[in-house]
Structures are given as C-alpha cells and as structure tokens.
Known about the structure:
Blueprint: H1 6-12, H2 19-30, H3 32-35, H4 40-47, H5 51-60, H6 66-82, H7 86-91, H8 100-120, H9 124-136, E1 140-143, H10 147-159, E2 166-167, H11 172-180, E3 187-191, H12 198-209, E4 213-218, E5 231-234, H13 247-267, H14 269-282
Parallel strand pairs: 1-2, 1-3, 3-4, 4-5
Amino acid sequence: xxxxxxxxxxxxxxxxxxxxxxxxxxxxxxxxxxxxxxxxxxxxxxxxxxxxxxxxxxxxxxxxxxxxxxxxxxxxxxxxxxxxxxxxxxxxxxxxxxxxxxxxxxxxxxxxxxxxxxxxxxxxxxxxxxxxxxxxxxxxxxxxxxxxxxxxxxxxxxxxxxxxxxxxxxxxxxxxxxxxxxxxxxxxxxxxxxxxxxxxxxxxxxxxxxxxxxxxxxxxxxxxxxxxxxxxxxxxxxxxxxxxxxxxxxxxxxxxxxxxxxxxxxxxxxxxxxxxxxxxxxxxxxxx
Length: 288
C-alpha cells in the first residue's frame, strides 16, 4: 500500500467499523492533521468514545496500535501535501529550498517556541508539590525509555551532585523490577513525551502498586501515564510521529528538570550546598 492511500483505506474499510469506531474514523477523515498531535486519550475524548474503541479501530485497520496508526497517517498527509520533500514530511516547516541560514533560524525558533510553550503550561502548585515529594522521599528513581531515558539520565546527573538518593536504570526490565520494590516513602519520577509507552506505563503501574508516589513529565494531560500519576507536569512542543526524539521536545523537558533542580537546591540549600562542595571536590583532581 502506498503511503498516500492510507486515508483511502480508512474509507474503504468504513463498513467494517463498529458504531464507536466509525466515530473515530469520521473524526480522523475530517481533520487528520489535528489527530497527529493527539494522544489516544485525547482522540477518544474528542470522539466521545473510550480508549479501547480507538485501539479497536487501529486493530480493524490491521495495525499493531495507535503509534503505527499515527505514523501511517503522517506519511499519508505528507504524500498528499508534498510527495517530493522528505524534509517537509519530517518537520512540516523546513523545506528543500531553505538555505542553511534559513534552517538555523527555523530550528532556533522551534526551540524557542518549545520553551515558551512549556513556560506557559507551568502549574506552580504542582511544581511545588513535586519538590515537597522529592524532599520527603527516601529514594527517587528517574524513569524513561528512548529519548526520555536521556532526560532521566541527565536529571540524575544533576541531582547526584547534591543528593545521594537519586537513581536510574537504562534497561526496561530493571526499571520494572526497581519500581516493583519501591516503598511508600519513595518517589517514581517518570518522563514520557507521549505518556503511552508500554514500558513506561508498566513502571508507573508497578510503582503505584508498591505504594510509591508518582510524578510524571509528559506532553498530554490525559494519557495512560497520567492515570497513574499523583502529579502531572506538562512540557511544550508538538512532536509528530516521524519526529521521535526531537531536540525541541528534550529541551522542553530539560527546562523543567532545571527548574525543579534549582527549587530543590533552594529549599535544601544548607545540605545541598555542602554536598555540592563534596562532589565537586571528588572530581577536582580529574581535571587539568
């Protein structure tokens, strides 16, 4: 099947859909571009159906799940708009005709927009509660997979300089095991742009089952991950299905990590300052 035929395939299979699935199909066909930036929960809410109806719609389309659906939808839209430009398909803004100076300006503006949108989404009460949880926690585990794992690792790299209670595992199996033995005094800090990654959801489920508090950084206020979270912190920037791991998404996440780090440092200044001196001194001889 050519990429541009995907929307036609939805039309051709329309009679196979249930009543709820037809609502999803109608919404997708009416505004496919908007769907690209909706979580499965957002789409379900817009169609006034359950998440499972959206998932069944994907299965009726003979797809593995929602992410594959969005990827094929994105390719289909890109083919219709400009089948000759892969760059346009990837970004929707940069074109093959742009000079390197044009590209630099557009990339800069994209990242600035991501930071501004993230700032506009800040809920200071939720952020303050997050710091309270972190200060009171016995242990803090930062979880994430894919590019969000890199953000989780960066977070640990920052916080380990001022507190010994931060941890991270790169392996998804180890993450699930670590989450399963957390205590009610511990905190699971989960980072996921989509909020719908299976490994991440499993970690959140295990952490809640163990009685730990869960804080998440995600793009979507309503997603499978937020259902298991005590605190939800939203990051800005819209990342299409073909832009997984985009720099703008990570920059928006890192803005939040920096903000949380600085507030944690401020509230625990005496202890954090002393630890910062110790950790800095520990690596001093390693520098020329």
